[in-house]
């Protein structure tokens, strides 16, 4: 190839002349290409404006970065906290389950010839509170416990003004009573209603205290009563209302709102406590209880008994005229008194079985109060049991009671000797389980009220 400038001969591949250095190949003109690109760019801008595009590249300001960080932190926080909330909820449910389980032995079904209701142990000694309308017209009632056993009960207090009554049941005198809340419970408190609605025993419903200071007057006067949305029904009357957190007794479930179980009413227990305590100190007589609701036509009011008012005629009350009583000579035959050992044995057996049941609860919860009513104060049994529970609190050992059989009961001048055969499973700290058989001797005495109490426990 020859240079068009100087005529120097160059190779075919050369771009520049080897003689004069001038370019010997045509250089590509880039102007048309640039013009084409520029035209396309301008066209794109015009189309973007027409269609409201945004050609801004995403940018991160300080605030947007903070927002991202906060969102990220909140997300991580929620992820971390979620399991904790679930665990707390499970714990609350477990606590309520335990509370209900522990409370049921102190709740009873009260039956009369007219129907049934509910009641609860207010004070150790077998003192059971219920509604007056549950037992009105009766002095003798049937008390059924949470495991279906029937016992006799006697109404020793009842009001025709307030819907409250008190029953004494000797067979349940060692059952642990509820602890009463002495102050008004605030609105919004979570509550548990226990009882036997429609005769369905061991029923528990959970709700809230939704109203205070409700006053009503029907057959009875209801003052400053609680409104609740925990479901109750016919048969719940007389049952306990508990604070779901503390487990304390706060009310006596008493009324439904026009047969609507959406909400009901409960008498505050603290407002009735003095009346109940007065009945415990001075029980009403059977005749006084009978007369309050005019059930028996042949009852002579106590105000007329031993009265000097000769104008009063006992015949008006279906009684008898004692003016002719002097015509009769009565020779009273001496009655033979002696212990009915069969009845006494049964009572002692109930006492020992109740103690063993509460003893297992005392071990499970490491709480001596469960068995305190069964143990004589200052006795060797008290000191030994307190020491055992104290030692158990620092050990990882468990006891599961299987059976307790009373094998013999011997009465002495000073005490009752009760022989038992007991079986249980003992779980050691290393996790191994041992089956145990024990023979025990319980020395039982009576306190000043005639109640049984354990003075000494020894191995046979």
Helix content: 25-40%
Which stretches are low in confidence, meaning pLDDT under 50 for 5 or more residues running? 49-58, 69-93, 296-340
- Strand fraction equals 25-35%
**Count of helical regions:** 7
Structure description:
The protein has 460 residues and is α+β, with helices and mostly antiparallel strands. It has seven helices and 16 strands. Strand 7 and strand 8 form a beta hairpin. 25% of the residues are buried. 27% of the residues lie in helices and 29% in strands. The chain folds into three domains: 56 residues, no CATH class; 174 residues, Thrombin, subunit H; 119 residues, Nuclear Transport Factor 2, Chain: A (Roll), CATH 3.10.450.50.
Topology:
Layout: H1 31-50, H2 62-103, E1 107-111, E2 116-123, E3 127-130, H3 132-135, E4 140-144, E5 150-158, E6 165-168, E7 190-195, E8 203-217, E9 221-228, E10 240-243, E11 249-257, E12 260-268, H4 269-281, H5 286-292, H6 341-365, H7 380-392, E13 398-411, E14 416-427, E15 433-446, E16 452-459
Antiparallel strand pairs: 1-2, 1-4, 2-3, 3-6, 4-5, 5-6, 7-8, 7-10, 8-9, 9-12, 10-11, 11-12, 13-14, 14-15, 15-16
């Amino acid at each position: 190839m020859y240079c068009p400038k100087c005529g120097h001969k160059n190779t075919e591949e050369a771009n520049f002349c080897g003689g004069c250095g001038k370019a010997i190949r045509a250089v590509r003109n880039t102007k048309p290409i640039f013009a084409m690109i520029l035209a396309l760019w301008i066209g794109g801008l015009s189309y973007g404006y027409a269609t409201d595009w945004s050609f801004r590249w995403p940018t991160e300001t300080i605030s947007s970065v903070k927002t991202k960080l906060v969102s990220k932190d909140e997300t991580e926080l929620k992820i971390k906290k979620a399991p904790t909330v679930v665990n707390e909820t499970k714990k609350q449910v477990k606590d309520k389950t335990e509370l209900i389980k522990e409370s049921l032995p102190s709740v009873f079904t009260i039956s009369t010839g007219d129907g049934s209701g509910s009641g609860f142990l207010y004070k150790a000694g077998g003192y059971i509170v219920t509604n007056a309308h549950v037992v009105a017209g009766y002095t003798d009632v049937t008390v059924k416990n949470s495991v279906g056993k029937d016992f006799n009960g006697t109404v020793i207090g009842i009001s025709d003004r307030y819907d409250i009554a008190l029953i004494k049941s000797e067979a349940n005198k060692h059952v642990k009573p509820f602890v009463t809340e002495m102050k008004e419970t605030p609105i919004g408190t979570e509550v548990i209603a226990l009882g036997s609605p429609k005769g369905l025993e061991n029923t528990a419903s959970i709700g809230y205290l939704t109203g205070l200071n409700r006053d009503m007057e029907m057959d009875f006067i209801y003052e400053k009563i609680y409104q609740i949305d925990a479901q109750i029904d016919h048969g719940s009357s007389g049952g306990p209302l508990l604070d779901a957190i503390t487990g304390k007794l706060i009310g006596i479930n008493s009324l439904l709102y026009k047969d609507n179980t959406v909400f009901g009413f409960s008498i505050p227990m603290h407002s009735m406590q003095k009346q109940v305590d007065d009945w415990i100190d001075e029980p009403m007589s059977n005749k006084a209880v009978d007369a309050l609701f005019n059930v028996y036509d042949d009852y002579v009011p106590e105000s007329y008994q031993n009265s000097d008012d000769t104008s009063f005629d006992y015949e008006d009350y279906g009684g008898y005229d004692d003016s002719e009583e002097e015509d009769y000579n009565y020779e009273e035959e001496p009655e033979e008194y002696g212990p009915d050992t069969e009845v006494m044995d049964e009572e002692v057996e109930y006492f020992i079985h109740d103690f063993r049941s509460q003893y297992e609860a005392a071990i499970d919860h490491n709480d001596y109060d469960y068995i305190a009513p069964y143990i004589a104060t200052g006795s060797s049994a008290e000191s030994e049991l307190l020491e055992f529970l104290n030692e158990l609190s620092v050990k990882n050992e468990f006891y599961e009671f299987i059976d307790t059989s009373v094998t013999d009961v011997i009465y002495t001048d000073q005490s009752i000797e009760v022989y038992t055969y007991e079986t249980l499973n003992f779980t050691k700290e290393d996790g191994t389980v041992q089956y145990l058989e024990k023979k025990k001797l319980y020395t039982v005495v009576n306190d000043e009220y005639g109640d049984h109490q354990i003075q000494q426990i020894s191995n046979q």
